[in-house]
């Protein structure tokens, strides 16, 4: 009996059930409080609505002022123009002779929003009129002094009516911001009588009121509704969870264990009951086992992702060399060239596919949720190359369809501000259209080139083509041609996207010959991490660090022309970072450039670690395939390190900078008398003279940094020579003297000044 009491005391199932219920309840309450906290936090975004409205109003004022400045600048040019002033100064008969020239002059200042001009005398008599009148106009007083407009002091010769088109004004303002729209109930911008703008006196303003708004792209009401609905759903889920948890505890734990313990306590002989409960426990064990296997599979996917990324990196380096070899192997027979090209393309596709898998698995593991994609500056050749590989893999069963990329001589370093995922999705749809037009046989070529400030990209196929009368219709929403299930959104969506990016989309086609989709995009400024031109100066030492011999061969080939000529260029090769460190610590080389890989197989140190170790941030250029990773680019930008995409190493322009000039001395002084003294006594010495710091800064790159500089303390206009000397010191010059008539004790200690001396030439000492 004592033993049974002990068992009952230790195994109190009601107490266990009570504790589990309390735990579940507190878990739900905690989750609810957390949701409430998120709700309160997100409602703060609603408070930003007023702030956003204020910012939009400020932006409206800025746009209005910009527009007024632009239009009144044009009016000011008109009223100050020589034909205009001559006409006003002339008498009645002379004005008749000048009328033709005056009308011709007026025609240059009539555009979309300015519909006409009319000059009237001070007695309100019409003198000359051109264009059309409108109720939307301004009257300007024309007062001149010395043939220049001056309302305050000038003599008023006449008045000028300017007639405007209200709708065209709004269209012109829309060019400042595409989200501007006309409004009727908003406050109007108006020019009041007696206003002075750009020196122009507005004596009368008829109906010159401009009403416009900027669309608020943030829909706060949807955010609030989403939060409220989400909160109600989460509350419902919490109560359902509590109910189901309570029910499951009863069914799977409390009731079975109660029966099992009653069976043991009562010494029952129902073997089937024990077998049933054991089976339930076995099922639970199997469930835990499956969950463990699932977790193990996720770990394996992560390891595969890392391996895929490494293999892709290892493949890409020799692939660059293969592409270069193929481009030069012009003597190969055509059959062999086709075989080699297909093999290289296949390797390229495999490498890009591995990178795509790596990114896809990373996104899955991070539970990435796609939002509205932001605009960013992107290297187009990289996006297009990866897309070509994806489409080749997609259509690899169509053996007679060839998808090829051709990049022009001006395609290196073409950046545009786009949405990269939308860009690839758009091109993917266009390639799909081209494949459908080929009927399982033909060629699709993607061209990339540039002209002036525009990027030219096209997708061309030799399919069945499109009838001319259908071409204009295909750019409209819902229009489709030759596809049973076509939605008609592909080309329309591409057109809308291209216009959002500041470009345009054109469609050219000829029946039985094929179709070409031409995309024109504006060039974007190159990002700070990108090397547009590899500048090499005389007497440079170029250190190439890469664990792939093919990359060393590529750089040797690129620099071959500079080694043949007398530039005194030296090339040094390393395959691992440790040897670089040993070499660098024993050498004292000033003019040095490092072309360094990022990843080194079987070495703990990477390229960034090496740069930090040597402290050569400004002299190092990373040559890597990792440039596509946003986090990696940001890290390099913070460190001040620039990059060259490894697959573009053979295409980066290399420029030899001219040799640095090293005169005997450089004098910066605003006193020309001092210049005369130095010139008179310099004999044959090569002295460079500058009268201002600005003129020297414009030519500073021409001079060797070991050249002695003599700088006056007072350079005019309140500019101190000490401050200029400090800026020059930060550029790398070290032999800097302050040439002044003041005593040295007059100045504080300045470590960037080598010596404070007089203004006499240094050769007098």
From TrEMBL:
The chain crosses the membrane at residues 20-43, 63-85, 223-244. Its EC number is 2.7.13.3. It comes from the Bacteria. Keywords: Membrane, Phosphoprotein, Transmembrane, Transmembrane helix. CDD domains: HATPase. It is an enzyme of class 2 (transferase). It holds the Pfam family HATPase_c. InterPro entries: HATPase_C_sf, HATPase_dom, His_kinase_dom, Sig_transdc_His_kin-like_C. Signal peptide: none annotated. Residues 310-525 form the Histidine kinase domain. It catalyses: ATP + protein L-histidine = ADP + protein N-phospho-L-histidine. One of its GO terms (molecular function) is phosphorelay sensor kinase activity. SMART domains: HATPase_c (SM00387). This is histidine kinase.
